[in-house]
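Mods, move this if it's the wrong board.
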Amino acid sequence: MKFDNAFIPCGFAWSSPFVRWQGTLADVSSMDLGVTVTNDALAQRDFDPQRLTQLVMGTTVPQADSFYAVPWTAARIGAPGITGPDISQACATAVACVASAAATVDNDPDETVLALTTDRTSNGPLMIYPKSRSMGGSPDTEHWVLDNFAADPATGKAMVATAENVAAEAGFTREALDDVSLLRYRQYEQSLAGDRAFQRRYMQPVRLTDRKGRVTEISADEGISPTTAEGLAELKPMAGGVITLGMQTHPADGTAGTLICGQATARELSNGNGIVRLIATGFGRAAAAHMPKAPVLAAERALASAGLSYHDIKLVNTHNPFAVNDLWLEKQTGFPLDRTNIYGSSLIYGHPQGPTGLRSIAELIEALRLEGGGLGLFTGCAAGDTAAALVIEVRD
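Not the wrong board. Structure tokens:
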């Protein structure tokens, strides 16, 4: 899908820190987290939420009262007169939300849409499905997070099996995959340099107030595992192949958001700091149980819609739950590994699902700004051997 007049004002894409699951945010509803961080983000940017014309939400893990996610959230952020869709597309949710918001603005540049993604993988709900004809009326149950991590119902395969399948087909060695993981960790360390100077460009702290009025602030990612070549070499494969815990991401909790509007509004809001043109999105699906291949397919479709090639792209960011993803992308496209995820990726800082892609897009925007603007590509896989991609351009 191609867009002609959908923009993000520079400075108007943000993310909370990501907190490893069962950590500090384990008992905080993702609905509350999204509202708290969004309110702070809009206030910090001196943006009046009454200017919003639509809210697009992205969630993948149900929370208490999330049946009313959009109107409830809109009221709590000071925009009670708006509504919009609540989108759930597994790990592709962020791009799906951006695509929905961009299509709305592309049709009417006077629209100003907030895309808000939020998820908590910690303490995932236990779903109970009535089954009156079973023995004694016993219900079926589903651990929403854990059971879906364990297997794709279409294939019966766990996500790690998809990484093993692609690694085996491509002939990726354990050593090559460890090298990718180590590179990604070192790139993430660059985002921490100078007292987290890069992360502070987009990261919105989480401020939680308890019943006694005491405030807890989370200003940086929590639960990052230090990575060394020696430590990676000591890990054993999880499924008898080459994939170890050092080559895959970890579940997390977090939220991310962005404002999408027409060019004139974007220019006004950016205060001379530049704008981000949303050019095209693309979605793709790989063969069954080959999820790490899907980001290349989605990227090809987004680039084709934009009339561009990898030769036009300055930087790529990926959602890479496995190091296999990035090695496959390099093998298929030739795009250099060291020009991908130059300030880190979900492989290192974790994966709350819905917000993961939007954090990576916010990082891509800021990385391009530091490089003087230009074209960037985000692409990332999602459950069901699918993926989503977005092409952007940062302009003065």
